[in-house]
Specification:
single chain; 275 residues; mainly alpha; 74% helix
Length: 275
């Protein structure tokens, strides 16, 4: 178990540092640290999402029996991804810190910061990103032990499908980068917003009814009968996982309505969600 976790602990922070240093030091780029940090964090999130969704596709398509079939990637990638969620909490804080400094709240450039300013930024970060931080903490402290210990090798198909929820993350990250460079009105931003909306709906919201339908097909049950046929704690876990997805999807839809409405006011981003 330690080998995949150690590998993840090296790959994700290492990729972040490599990307940040490259963006800052390449003669053709010479980006400011704030821009390099924010873009590098988005890049790492996108890479992790591609890896997770690819692993999930391989696992889910390889498991014909939704309960008993196993695939080595299911446990291996779960262990590999644990350090990512820990790293990403810190990476999100760095992004928030640099945005805070750019807005001029960090004191004069080169001068000392006001006493307690670090704690003020940390509190602001937790307030703004509370749901995302909670999501990451639950993934590490609850979902990881459950997937490795409690499952006892059962249900790799369902775990693979859950990994494919990350399909929408690269579109979310690209949207935030476009906003960072004030490209909200470009065709690319609108196309990316539409793809983000569709992928989030299919891979994060409709995923849960699909999982119930897949189990119902396996057990010979209609979809509406599945919740009554499985243990209550599974229904509770699914509801807790679905709830933040519905909230984020609401934010995406609200932003998309503003983005595609007739011109008259500057539309804000539809990208007010997670990784």
């Amino acid at each position: 178990m330690l080998t995949p976790m150690v590998a993840g602990g090296v790959v994700f922070p290492g990729l972040f540092l490599l990307s940040k240093n490259t963006l800052q030091r390449l003669p053709q780029l010479r980006w400011e640290e704030a821009d390099a940090v924010i873009v590098s964090a988005r890049l790492v999130s996108s890479v992790q999402a591609v890896m997770a969704s690819t692993a999930g596709y391989i696992v889910s398509t390889s498991c014909k029996h939704v309960i008993d079939d196993q695939h080595w990637l299911s446990s291996a990638y779960t262990q590999f991804a644990v350090p990512y969620f820990i790293y990403d909490i810190y990476a999100m804080f760095l992004c928030h810190w640099h945005k805070h400094q750019v807005k001029g709240h960090g004191g004069d450039e080169g001068g000392p910061r006001a006493p307690g300013s670090t704690w003020a930024v940390a509190r602001g970060y937790l307030h703004k990103e509370f749901l995302m931080v909670l999501h990451h903490a639950v993934m590490v402290l609850v979902c990881f032990p459950l997937s490795v210990v409690w499952r006892q090798g059962k249900g790799d198909f369902f775990l693979g499908c859950l990994l494919m929820a990350e399909v929408s993350t690269p579109f979310v990250c690209l949207g935030k980068i476009l906003i960072q460079y004030k490209q909200q009105h470009t065709v690319l931003h609108k196309v990316n917003g539409a793809l983000m909306l569709i992928s989030f709906l299919c891979c994060r919201v409709l995923l849960f009814p699909y999982l119930y339908w897949a189990y119902g097909r396996h057990a010979g049950l209609p979809l509406l009968a599945v919740p009554l046929a499985i243990p209550a704690h599974i229904n509770l876990g699914a509801a807790l996982l679905l709830a933040p997805q519905l909230y984020w999807f609401f934010l995406i839809c609200r932003g998309a309505c503003r983005l595609f409405r007739p011109r008259g006011s500057r539309p804000p981003s539809p990208c007010q969600t997670q990784d």
